[in-house]
Design goal:
Blueprint: H1 2-15, H2 18-30, H3 45-57, H4 75-84, H5 93-108, H6 111-125, H7 130-135, H8 142-152, H9 155-162, H10 169-179, H11 183-191, H12 195-204, E1 211-212, E2 215-216, H13 217-225, H14 229-246
Antiparallel strand pairs: 1-2
Helix pairs in contact: 1-2, 2-3, 2-4, 3-6, 5-6, 6-10, 9-10, 10-13, 12-14
């Protein structure tokens, strides 16, 4: 039966948006066979969007073989974690390729795909819980490994460049504010001297009057203002220089 049903589910997961596409992707995860045919094509924009929806919707916290009530772990969680490298000690070539495809989507695709790809990458950045960090202090956590890969492919530069583009500026700002939560990514952002000026340009052009979903622009701006003395100081020093230059 799988030989008949699985190809049809793959078509739905690749060709359909919305609930149908999301459910098809989740069903295909249950039927996932790494060596089989009819897997999702990570280069297809709809397939990536539907996978991203599953990634965000499902509870992807790390579990043992069973939860407290004795029920088995959702196989979709296990497959998603394996697919994106959320339990990996080292990313495979396929996982790096998937992350690279998401970065390209952030750079080059339409607004919907850029948003989906950005939110997916930010989800992958999320830290393990404090307990897991303490238990695995001797080794890099999967989230840290993924963040290192994102720095290696210069994703932060993409977000900073987006600050200059009207349609992408607020999404890029939101992504940077999110990345500032992670010390190693914060250091990379601080090393780029252009972003404070771009933020001020966004203020001047009223870009923060919009929102990213339900997250209002002024809250995104507040994330930069509250992040820490060093970032705040660099922000205001650039602004003062601009004001002096205009006077």
């Amino acid at each position: 039966m799988c030989t008949v049903v699985k190809p049809r589910i793959r078509v739905l997961a690749t060709k359909r948006d919305g609930l149908v596409g999301h459910l098809a992707a989740e069903i295909l995860l249950v039927l996932y066979d790494p060596d089989g045919q009819n897997q999702l094509d990570i280069h297809d924009t709809r397939a990536r969007a539907n996978l991203a929806s599953a990634l965000v919707r499902l509870n992807l916290e790390k579990h043992g073989s069973a939860d407290d009530e004795g029920s088995s772990v959702d196989p979709r969680q296990q497959i998603l974690r394996r697919l994106f490298g959320l339990d990996a000690e080292e990313l495979s070539d396929l996982q790096k390729e998937l992350i690279g495809a998401l970065k390209k989507a952030v750079e080059k695709c339409n607004a919907r795909e850029r948003t989906v790809a950005t939110m997916t990458l930010l989800k992958l950045c999320e830290s393990e819980s404090i307990i897991n960090e303490l238990l695995t202090w001797a080794h890099a956590s999967p989230a840290t490994i993924i963040r290192a890969q994102l720095r290696e492919i210069k994703l932060l530069d993409v977000f900073i460049n987006q600050l200059q583009q009207k349609d992408d500026a607020l999404l890029g700002a939101y992504a940077l504010v999110t990345c500032l939560k992670y010390s190693e990514m914060k250091e990379s952002i601080k090393d780029n001297e252009d972003w404070p000026k771009h933020i001020i340009d966004m203020l001047d052009k009223d870009y923060f009057d919009d929102a990213v979903g339900a997250i209002e622009g002024f809250r995104i701006l507040g994330g930069f203002m509250q992040d820490g003395n060093e970032l705040l100081l660099s922000f205001w020093m650039i602004w003062i220089r601009i004001l002096i230059g205009l006077s």
